[in-house]
Design goal:
It is built from 22 helices and no strands. The chain is an all-alpha fold and about 425 residues long. The longest helix is centred in the middle third of the chain and has 34 residues.
Length: about 425
Amino acid sequence: MAAMGIVLVLGVLLGVPVAIVMLGGSLVGMDALGVPSYVAFQRMSAQIVNQSFLAIPFFLLVGELLTQSKLADRIMGLATALVGHWRAGIAQSSLVMSAGMATISGSGAADAAATGAVFIPNMKKRGYRAADAAAVVAAGSVLGPIIPPSIVLIIYGSLAEVSVRDLMIAAIVPGVFILAAMMLTARFVLGRGPSAPPRMPRASLREVLTTLRTALVAIGAPALMLVGIFAGWFTATEAGAVACVYVLIAGLALRTLNGASLLEALKATVKRTAAVMLVIAASTILAWIAAFTRIPQALSEFLLGLGSPILILLLAVGVLVLLGTVIDPLGAAIIMIPLVHPIGVAAGLDPIHFAISLAVAICVGGVTPPVGTYLFITAGIAETPITKVAKAVVPYLVAILVSLLLIVFIPGMSTALPALLR
């Protein structure tokens, strides 16, 4: 098993794709345990046929269709009209757009790519340092897997057998709170001092109403998804499929989507879906090895022996935050959820509160080096070194971690809304 650990660590340090690292390490570990390698591929295929995962390509396709049809630009226009005149207004507008894209794609990586492509060049033109522009967009991308609909919450619900609908409702308040915390951070970090970018003029009421009317078509996609899920009209998978049809019809009707852009959206969706599912499949083998070696039982005995539910939750959150520094958030979710969720429930913690706390902790990994998936995406768009972006993202990371602690210690932030809507 030591050889497996060496393969995993070296792979991460050498920059090998996370899915390949996990798959290679798992095969080495299975060989050390005397388990035939074909078992790994049996476990992978058994995991990815989970019906709940059908929502993933639909969510990703909605985001790609909005981007290719230029409807995402309308969301940017609305965000800028609403908050662009504030201190560091463009940065705060990017965070608002990240929240808007989060209600569409459910993926932090998709959010980083879409928002970054629109906002980072614009921010650089307006006097923002490339690293600051990349950092604020990367931080906002953490909202992608938190604000519903969320791929991480779909995975969590399917693995832990918790209502996906309840999880998505529960994530609304924490997601909005984290958004507010990051907007305040951007205001104080980027909006003060002699190097602060110039503020934009305040949009008139007519301009706000005009951008709102223009953006209504784009806003309709997440509205349809969220209302449909929360009202129980359709499942998360069905919501994604309906939203795809909606955006496709809207793009064709407005003549902002043609055959070439539709093909690009489909290609990008296939690539992103394949990447996500490969991570999920590879993570499944590591989770199986953990179960085979009775790690869950040992972990359960240790944590339950602590006797304090809140201490158990804090330790679980801390482990996931640390794990996120070296493993992709989706991989961390697949590996850890089956291990720690039963422990939290056995300790008497509310399943919804426990789930949201862990989900937010998992998402922090998107902006923590050395993996930091969202950092790499935005640094590439900004054409700036990843080291500079990692340094610039620290204030936002602090804001996210403080928000996470409040979510842990105030269960009502996660549980009040689901209880109200039941």
